[in-house]
Amino acid sequence: MAEVVIRPSRAEDCRQVVRLIRELAEFENLSEQVKISDQDFCEDGFGKDPFYKCLVAEVPPESRSQDGPTIVGYGLYFFTYSTWKGRNIYMEDLYVMPAFRGKGLGKKLMSAIAQAGLEHGCTQMRFAALDWNRSAIDFYLRQGAVDMTATEGWHFFRFEANAMRGLARGDSGSDQGPAHV
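-> structure tokens emitted (181 positions)
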């Protein structure tokens, strides 16, 4: 296989990256949850106030499958903050098309995200993996990651838009907050 280039994504890559996001969601059996349009994704990453950064793995046109894409993987990340450790980088997605796996592209993308974090003074790189995706979990552990659920018992939560609206109005769920709040 010819040399794959890991590079920052550009606005013109958004359509191909969204295609990969949909492939990842299908692999995770969560395709119905993908609601982002190509246009919104592009605006969120390349508009006035970008919410994320993205790296792509690109093969030369002669290495793609017949009429296939040249962008064959991506790593999407953003910066966040830990009140205990300071600056963090969060890897939202890491995905390589099945035909291009086993060639080190996932590690190259993840290494480039780690490098971006270090360049911005981050002390940790955080991400999540589905509990059934053993090959991904094993891959991350081999790279030196710590499974926070296993070692410290952390659970990650989210509020969907309707729950956020209810919470913002003050009428969501129980009136009792967590014991430490």
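The chain has six helices and five strands.
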